């Protein structure tokens, strides 16, 4: 046991000394930040009100109306923070538009068989265009509903209230699982690198002569990788908490992250021992990873889904589902300990 | 050289390992294929919903549905076992955060179902009575300032005046009735007027547009189906069917092209590092080939594989092969140059793995980040991916846009090849030192001692694309900070990075005791600053040819074009270099802090003048 601990300490030291872990954390931080940028981007498109309200975007629209029906639209626009100017004809509106006094022109003609063929004149400039679409979206939808109703078509909107769920879903179904599983993927890479390094530097033979079993050597490498992963998972839970993102069932989520890291470590250790060189092992690992992620999609709940549901506080998920993942791990772990020595000593 | 490399790769994957690789690969492909055709749903089973007997049917795998009696439903809702109870047509939430989100999600789903029902039950012109035809006119506001604060009050007389001036103008509207008052009155004053030009009668066209968009709307569930041939923006808008453009497609395109190239370049690094460690590379050096030939020879097969992949992906996505190659070859070269640097610098595999992952994410951000704003902002053309998106939309881009996107990448490649050949010697390859001293050594080896002035000038120039990329990547980090700190932090990062880049060459010469005289230090510092500024302005000039109206560009070009920035760069770099010369390289970081402070004060005052 003391031999194992000494080995473990050596592995951990090498991981911290080589700043590997620092790279790993920077990478994850980068990915998380970038995802949140994409999220903000998506939010801007999906739910402009969330951004429009906070920044108070005002646009000025010129209206050229040819119909009695336009009154409600004007009200909706007014409520939607659009400043209105009414023009008697196109020439006047275009004149103002070209001078930059209004941002857009809306031409609302008489309805024809109940259809209103509105014309919207927008500036060519791209940035402005997007903002205008964002602000006009809601009023236009309301006007469309008004026109529908006047045609005798009713939409049953069941209830009001509820918050737009895009952010919530994106956060718990993508960002949180990625952050919790990425350390596991890194653990796999660490295991491959440390094992194949021993092969390529031909140091396994030296280790074979040391008073520790080869099983212990490999187990120490795997444990070091898993401990690294555990530290990262705990760190992410804390960091997310600081960002006001609460991970429910934090203990179970961390446990699951560690279990998966351990499982991947076992798998990668087998691969590294089989191929005995880094190039092939890393390549096969990357493909196997894609296959595993794909394959796990068919499990119910998948590791990804389980993390999502645990961290979002789904009461129907708990220790039982996590245990389902832990048991097979223990089994393959034990089997692996039995065969590892043979794999090391087998020739290429 | 290349032939040898191919043989090596082939022997690696022979016999059993080839079978294993192929088997795993096949399994992966089958898996992805099945998932792709199963409608990938993220957030599967996220919400628990109880439904009463007469409630609408919910076919969305985000919701776990349980049919519950009214009483039990409310009770479970109270206890938090379910997140929502759908009582007939009413969504009942329990006012916890989670329940509110669930309610939002369910409502969005039900709204969509309602739209589909209406589309199904009524004829198309009753279901979708509002169609909006969008057209674009160029505004000629010379001064962006004038557009901003135009007050309403000034507006009204203007309108009235134009109406009066135009004798042809139809019924004199109640123009005099427009009082310069609140906008509500304006609304009240709205009245039907005859339109000057009859609208084009296009019922068939808009009906078609509705049908097309409706089909699109009904199809996509959560993730929009990926198509490489993007539909460009709709010219006819149906408000309720308006689909938000999701930047997902950009991300997918990047991955389709970039990930295989990354894989291939991973082999290149592996092979390179392995031969480095086993000293085979050193043996090669004694052969009658140049260093460039060794590096290129080893790289060439992998470059060829990558080109094949690029062609393949372009064919699968039905793109233009020549354009695809023109766009992605610079990207490929850029990726390879990163990996070449990694292979030259690092000795352990672990470091390599992590550096590679870091590089992959930085490159992805560099490519995807700006491309998300394709069609929103012209500045997105700093990423070659924007060109690809434009290509797949069937639109065109200009030559200057192409060069803006690809030149920095090609420059980085050329630079790396140059540095690579300079450092390609036994001592550097086999040395085991921390990263910063490795970099310092590489810079020292790169500088040509016989033409010191010229080398320093060029080094200042060639670091600009790199600095630019680092600054871009730092934006990603900055978004984690609260808004007030963002600008300040960006300022600090960019200033420090620039000072580091400008002074690095001189300081490394100092470190190697190659500059005994203070006069030389000053001269080289000035040259490095000059080179840096020239390249910076050149890049800016290129950007200007693509982007004409951007705050960003204004901020960059603000404060004069030549003399002032040059003076600043020379002063700050000289301060850093002279300080280091006086107190020694141990105090380099303090010197950087000093120089950065000067630089920052300048930047802030320029910004102040602009605002």
Written account of the structure:
- The complex is a heterodimer of chains A (348) and B (611).
- Chain A has 348 residues and is α/β, with parallel strands linked by helices.
- Chain A has two domains: 2-42 and 165-345, no CATH class; 50-150, 3-Layer(aba) Sandwich (abc type-2 transporter like fold), CATH 3.40.1710.
- Helices cover 70% and strands 7% of the residues of chain A.
- Chain A has helices at 2-17, 20-46, 48-55, 71-79, 90-98, 126-150, 166-200, 204-209, 214-242, 250-275, 278-296, 303-311, 319-345, and strands spanning 59-65, 82-86, 104-108, 116-123.
- A four-stranded mixed β-sheet of chain A has the order 2-1-3-4, sandwiched between helices.
- The longest helix of chain A is centred in the middle third of the chain and has 35 residues, at 166-200.
- The two termini of chain A are 30 Å apart.
- Chain B is mainly alpha-helical and 611 residues long.
- Chain B has three domains: 41-134 and 206-225, 3-Layer(aba) Sandwich (D-Maltodextrin-Binding Protein, domain 2), CATH 3.40.190; 246-430, no CATH class; 447-611, no CATH class.
- In chain B, a hairpin with a 2-residue loop joins strand 3 (84-87) and strand 4.
- In chain B, helix 10 (248-277) runs antiparallel to helix 12 and helix 16 runs antiparallel to helix 22 (518-546).
- Chain B starts with a helix and ends with a helix.
- Classes of the chains: A alpha/beta (348), B mainly alpha (611).
- Chains A and B meet through helix 2, strand 1, helix 4, strand 2 and helix 5 of A and helix 2, strand 4, helix 4, helix 5 and strand 5 of B.
- Strand 4 (116-123) of chain A pairs parallel with strand 5 of chain B.
- Ranges of chain B where pLDDT stays below 50 over 5 or more residues in a row are 141-202, 221-232
The profile of the biggest β sheet of chain A is: 4 strands, mixed
CA-atom Rg of chain A in angstroms: 30 Å
The amount of beta strand of chain A, in percent, is 5-15%
If strands are numbered along the chain, what order do they take across the biggest sheet of chain A? 2-1-3-4
Structural class of chain A: alpha/beta
- Our measurement of the CA-to-CA distance between the termini of chain B, rounded to an integer number of angstroms, reads 59 Å
Helices of chain B, by number, come to 25
- Number of extended strands of chain A: 4
> Order of strands across the widest beta sheet of chain B?
2-1-3-4
The most extensive contact between chains is: A-B, 134 and 140 residues
Helical content class of chain B: 55-70%
The sequence of SSEs of chain A as H and E is HHHEHEHEEHHHHHHHH
* Average pLDDT, all residues of chain B: 74
Rg of chain B computed from alpha carbons, rounded to a whole number of angstroms: 31 Å
**Number of helix segments of chain A?**
13
Unreliable spans of chain A: 48-55
């Amino acid at each position: 046991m003391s031999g194992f601990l000494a080995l473990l300490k050596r592995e951990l030291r090498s991981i911290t000394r080589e700043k590997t872990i620092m790279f790993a954390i920077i990478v994850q931080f980068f990915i998380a930040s970038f995802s949140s940028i994409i999220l903000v981007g998506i939010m801007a498109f999906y739910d402009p009100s969330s951004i429009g309200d906070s920044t108070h975007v005002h646009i000025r629209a010129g209206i050229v109306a040819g119909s009695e029906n336009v009154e409600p639209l004007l009200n909706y626009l007014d409520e939607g923070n659009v400043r209105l100017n009414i023009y008697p004809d196109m020439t006047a509106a275009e004149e103002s538009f070209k001078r930059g006094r209004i941002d857009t022109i809306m031409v609302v003609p008489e309805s024809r068989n109940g259809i209103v063929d509105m014309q919207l004149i927008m500036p060519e400039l791209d940035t402005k265009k997007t903002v205008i679409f964002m602000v006009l979206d809601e009023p236009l939808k309301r006007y469309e509903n008004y026109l529908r109703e006047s045609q005798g078509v009713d939409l049953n909107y069941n209830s009001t209230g509820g918050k737009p769920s895009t952010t919530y879903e994106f956060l718990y179904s993508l960002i949180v699982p990625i952050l919790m599983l990425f350390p596991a993927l890194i653990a796999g890479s660490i295991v491959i690198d440390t094992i194949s390094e021993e092969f390529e530097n031909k140091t396994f033979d030296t280790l074979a002569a040391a008073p520790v079993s080869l099983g212990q050597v490999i187990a120490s490498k795997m444990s070091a990788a898993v401990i690294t992963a555990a530290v990262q998972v705990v760190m992410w839970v804390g960091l997310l908490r600081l960002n006001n993102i609460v991970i429910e069932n934090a203990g179970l989520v961390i446990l699951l992250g560690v279990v998966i890291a351990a499982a991947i470590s076992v798998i990668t250790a087998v691969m590294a021992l089989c191929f005995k060189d880094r190039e092939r092992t890393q390549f096969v690992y990357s493909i196997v990873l894609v296959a595993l992620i794909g394959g796990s999609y068919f499990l119910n709940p998948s590791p990804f889904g389980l993390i999502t549901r645990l961290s979002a506080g789904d009461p129907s998920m708990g220790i039982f589902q996590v245990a389902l993942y832990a048991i097979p791990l223990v089994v393959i772990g034990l089997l692996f300990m039995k065969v590892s020595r043979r794999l090391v000593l087998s020739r290429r | 050289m290349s032939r040898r490399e191919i043989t090596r790769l082939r022997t690696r994957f022979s016999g059993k390992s080839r079978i294993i690789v192929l088997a795993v690969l096949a399994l992966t492909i089958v898996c992805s294929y099945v998932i792709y055709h199963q409608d990938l749903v993220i957030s599967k089973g996220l919400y628990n919903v109880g439904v009463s007997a007469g409630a609408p049917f919910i076919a969305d795998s985000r919701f776990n549905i349980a049919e519950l009696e009214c009483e039990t439903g409310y009770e479970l809702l109270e206890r938090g076992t379910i997140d929502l109870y759908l009582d007939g047509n009413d969504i009942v939430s329990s006012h916890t955060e989670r329940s509110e989100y669930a309610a939002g999600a369910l409502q969005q789903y039900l709204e969509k179902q309602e739209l589909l029902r209406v589309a199904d039950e009524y004829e198309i012109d009753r279901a979708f009575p509002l169609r909006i035809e969008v057209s674009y006119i160029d505004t000629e506001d010379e001064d962006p300032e004038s557009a901003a604060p135009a007050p309403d009050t000034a507006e009204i007389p203007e309108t009235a005046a134009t109406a009066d001036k135009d004798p042809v103008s139809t019924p004199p509207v109640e123009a005099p009735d427009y009082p310069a008052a609140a906008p509500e009155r304006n609304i009240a004053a709205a009245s039907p007027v005859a339109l000057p030009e009859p609208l084009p009668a296009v019922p068939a066209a808009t009906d078609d547009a509705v049908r097309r968009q409706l089909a699109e709307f009904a199809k996509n569930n959560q993730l929009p189906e990926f198509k490489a041939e993007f539909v460009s923006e709709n010219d006819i808008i149906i408000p309720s069917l308006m689909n938000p453009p999701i930047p997902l497609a950009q991300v997918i395109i990047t991955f389709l092209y970039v990930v295989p190239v990354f894989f291939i370049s991973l082999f290149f690094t592996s092979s390179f590092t392995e031969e480095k460690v086993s000293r085979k590379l050193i043996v090669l050096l004694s052969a009658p080939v140049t260093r460039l030939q060794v590096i290129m020879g080893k790289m060439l097969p992998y470059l060829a594989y990558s080109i094949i992949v690029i062609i393949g992906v372009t064919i699968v996505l039905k793109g233009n092969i020549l354009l695809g190659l023109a766009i992605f070859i610079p990207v490929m070269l850029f990726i390879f140059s990163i990996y070449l640097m990694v292979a030259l610098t690092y000795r352990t595999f672990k470091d390599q793995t992590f550096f590679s992952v870091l590089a992959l994410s930085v490159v992805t951000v560099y490519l995807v980040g700006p491309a998300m704003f394709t069609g929103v902002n012209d500045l997105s053309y700093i990423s070659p991916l924007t060109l690809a998106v434009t290509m797949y939309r069937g639109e065109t881009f200009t030559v200057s846009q192409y060069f803006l996107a690809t030149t920095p990448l090609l420059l980085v490649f050329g630079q790396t090849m140059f540095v690579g050949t300079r450092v390609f010697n036994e001592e550097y390859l086999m040395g085991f030192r921390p990263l910063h001293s490795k970099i310092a050594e590489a810079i020292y080896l790169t500088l040509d001692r016989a033409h010191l002035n010229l080398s320093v000038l060029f080094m200042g120039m060639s670091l600009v694309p790199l600095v630019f990329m680092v600054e871009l990547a730092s934006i990603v980090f900055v978004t984690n900070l609260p808004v007030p700190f963002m600008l300040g932090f960006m300022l600090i990062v960019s200033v420090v990075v620039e000072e580091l880049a400008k002074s690095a060459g001189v300081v490394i010469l100092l470190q190697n005791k190659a500059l005994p005289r203070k006069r030389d230090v000053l001269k080289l510092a000035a040259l490095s600053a000059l080179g840096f500024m020239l390249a910076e302005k050149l890049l800016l000039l290129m950007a200007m040819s693509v982007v004409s109206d951007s705050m960003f560009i204004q901020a960059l070009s603000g404060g004069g074009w030549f003399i002032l920035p040059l003076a600043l760069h020379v002063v700050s770099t000289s301060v850093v270099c002279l300080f280091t010369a006086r107190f020694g390289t141990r105090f380099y970081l303090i010197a950087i802090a000093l120089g950065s402070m000067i630089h920052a004060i300048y930047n802030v005052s320029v910004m102040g003048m602009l605002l």
